């Protein structure tokens, strides 16, 4: 089955290629795979990899190697909202397993399965760098193609809150991204600062 | 056995350290350095305090010779285990250690492939480096102090080995690599005596790479040698490293066979038993095999091979290193044709009876029948044809015999109606195979090197990869595994180049070392004289032949061709065969048998019941290349010998001996009774054929040729080799080659 970048995305492809010298076109494989994944509803088919190989003028196997190496590239179908639960130690200690259980139970799927309405799938990711707000999930939103693609973090989750987020997404709403703790602001402590109240620059 | 030898070699530093310390005089012998001052033992000892346990000096690994650059500034000195060695700039630490005689264990490093540095087995300690260094990827720097035998280096290797063995199955007893396995040898020499891994080992799905390479991917240690070989040497970008972490595996991702004519070489370079030979699977153990160092005759390259046999049976064929011809690779046809040596063989002399069936007879009867017929035909009706696989001795005997009977109609198949036998430079690869690496522009005329001579093609590909040499091709559309420009399909394009009208002329003009390779398929064309004179015009125009560079080449197709032309087996095949009453086919299966007159008496002397047997009246069984001593000249004019590896089949005899016996019965006895006698006779006709393992270039230039009046025809060039895997009697009898043709040639 032939696969092609859309016209709008072809412009982006050319933009990507312009970053690299013409004899190092293969440097563009990763951003192109990402673009292809957004365009193709969250996963990269072999046909898309072949198309990219053609654009960057390498053998297809060189693109397969990259696509199989990075876990962020899905090679099977995912839901329109791909929910990635962080499973690394800080999140695990703060209850990421319960988060995942709650998600899987609520959606009625197993890990890496897509719900029957095609809306959701749940996967696991390693550390996404939000350990201070653990546990967290990342939601890759492929519902609006590569133009409206978003990739948001939802942090400080509880099993109850994560289900609420899923419900909001199902209704087409956009839950506020970032920390879900009512008293926290970004990565700051709950209830406002406890130290460093003043502007420290004055004193020094 | 090699396994034990290696294990002992690797442990030798330990054994030697117990020996009394060597006298100081002995130490001075090892300095490779040309200058005494730079490499004096005192200098080495002054910087690296001599350890009383320091092992005695060693010779470079494998007798390797290092050519130091003439400019002393391009050489540098490093210290390996306290001994100073001088190496050229750009050497890696591993190479420096090899020069110093220290064999560093390695899996992913291969001298003919790019450096990957991913197995980590070659870790050594380098002074002032905080961590052990992967020696294969680290350039040696002046004054570097490399320590290969310290606790740090030993522990590093042991650790790496433990990791490598973690997921490696313990199936050595059922593994075909057992006994010649790098992992087995090195784990004995460098590994710990126990592992700490208690979890489950991973398993990997086997891949289907075609009928030649068997995969047991669970054994793979991810050295990526096969991936690099496929993309760099073979030029098929099919294999890759997929996945990550413990899920990492070698594969093609999409189901795909490895369609390369060099695919068998991944069996040799795989350091473990992940890629092994499918036809050889579970057939024999390597220590049961007797290796015979001989050469290959399935094409005109004369690749150096080792025939491994057990008793009377050829078990496998592996390459032998020859930098000038095949480096360390061989083509799949060379490697896997050996099962053809066991099938369709002619065992006994046979005579076709009146009912059209063959009856086995004794040699005496068969020779008597042939001699009787010989007496009845006129001398000029006798024709002798040598086959593609004939050695020089038998062709000499055939020519002498036919001449003695009063005929001059003796030829070798594949050399066309009027072979250019006058000057050796007209039919040889004058640049030499290794010399192709210096070329910067290739013009291939009517030759498809990938199927005609896979090893020459590998050399061209190597050159193209290394120096971005340009390749232009005139001939029918065909497969290339490197970038090339298809200029045209017929001689017209060649004429255009000769007349300077073609755009490619500018490339040729600017080339420093241009190479023209004409295919031996051109010999069969009616207009071959005109073609070769056009090629010579091109050569003259673009300075292809100079005193310091001869870029005018002919790429031959068969092992016998060059020697046949040297010996003067040059009769016109169409005329000779049309008028013959007595046809002597010496392994010649590709002559046009329809042209043979119905009343002609055909003698087939050969080792395989191939095409020509159907027309033969008498069959005389002879021995194949693996069973006889024979002289062959390859396409670049290098003379080499085959060595008998196995006994002959049944009642077969060497080709020249049969002719000698027949000559006596026919009353025209040939004047030699021994191989040395035949070779003496050969040395009178073509002295270059007795200088074995030497390439004798042609000294006379082609200037002295008479002018050609013939016109170039417009018929496009033809594909000469339709099926790479089946070109001669041996490969046509091979089951493996038949499988390859069926699965790999499918378009």
Give structural notes.
- The complex is a heterodimer of chains A (204) and B (747).
- Chain A has 204 residues and is an alpha/beta fold.
- Chain A folds into two domains: 7-69, Arc Repressor Mutant, subunit A (Orthogonal Bundle), CATH 1.10.10; 81-179, 3-Layer(aba) Sandwich (Glutaredoxin), CATH 3.40.30.
- Chain A is 35% helix and 12% strand.
- Chain A contains seven helices and five strands, in the order ααααβααβββαβ.
- Chain A has helices spanning 7-17, 29-39, 46-56, 60-69, 89-93, 96-107, 159-170, and strands at 81-86, 120-125, 137-141, 150-155, 178-179.
- In chain A, strands 2-1-3-4-5 form a five-stranded mixed sheet, with helices on one face.
- In chain A, helix 7 links the parallel strand 4 (150-155) and strand 5.
- In chain A, helix 2 runs antiparallel to helix 3.
- The longest helix of chain A is centred in the middle third of the chain and has 12 residues, at 96-107.
- The radius of gyration of chain A is 20 Å and the shape is globular.
- In chain A, 31% of the residues are buried.
- With 747 residues, chain B is α/β, with parallel strands linked by helices.
- Chain B has 22 helices and 29 strands.
- Chain B has a seven-stranded mixed sheet with strand order 14-13-26-25-24-15-16.
- In chain B, helix 11 (392-404) links the parallel strand 15 (382-386) and strand 16 (410-412).
- In chain B, helix 10 crosses helix 19 (655-665) and helix 11 (392-404) packs parallel to helix 19 (655-665).
- The longest helix of chain B has 17 residues, at 2-18.
- Chain B starts with a helix and ends with a helix.
- The chains are: A alpha/beta (204), B alpha/beta (747).
- Chain A binds chain B through residues 46, 58-62, 64-65, 68-71, and chain B through 231, 237-244, 252-254.
- Chain A: GO terms for molecular function: 2 iron, 2 sulfur cluster binding; metal ion binding; NADH dehydrogenase activity.
- Chain A: Its cofactor is [2Fe-2S] cluster.
- Chain A: Pfam families: 2Fe-2S_thioredx (PF01257).
- Chain A: One of its GO terms (cellular component) is respiratory chain complex I.
